[in-house]
């Protein structure tokens, strides 16, 4: 009486399903590429990256001349459980040239306090903490903070950077 109706499968219903999906992915890819290529036309990418636009390099502030004030050598044992390791550094401080005399005088006056603060900070470092570019850069920032804590506790520091003249880990 009634004939069995054939059951429709997914392939019978959408014969071009895989082709349509591939076409959709290709279209999305092309749109993404075009959007990425057009983005610099709409958005100022250099300002997002913190770089000044070409031709607009007005000097934000006059070129500040800097001076280097030597601090001296320091040797500190590192906190390494397996072996006796130490860090030997020769430090200098980068300052604005007009502040060189004041910083040099203050540094000479408070050198024992600065050294004590640095020794207590560096003695807790391990070989891993002081190795590699990341470790050295981090250590420069941390040492600068220790200098500023002792020399300029009010927060108005003319110190620009800590420079390593020598850096030896053994």
TrEMBL record:
Family: Belongs to the FliL family.
Domain of life per record: Bacteria
Record's protein name: Flagellar protein FliL
Membrane topology: Single-pass membrane protein
Major localization class: membrane
Compartment list: Cell membrane
Purpose: Controls the rotational direction of flagella during chemotaxis.
Biological-process GO terms, alphabetical: bacterial-type flagellum-dependent swarming motility; chemotaxis
Alphabetical UniProt keywords: Cell membrane, Cell projection, Chemotaxis, Cilium, Flagellar rotation, Flagellum, Membrane, Transmembrane, Transmembrane helix
GO cellular component: bacterial-type flagellum basal body; plasma membrane
TM segment ranges: 23-43
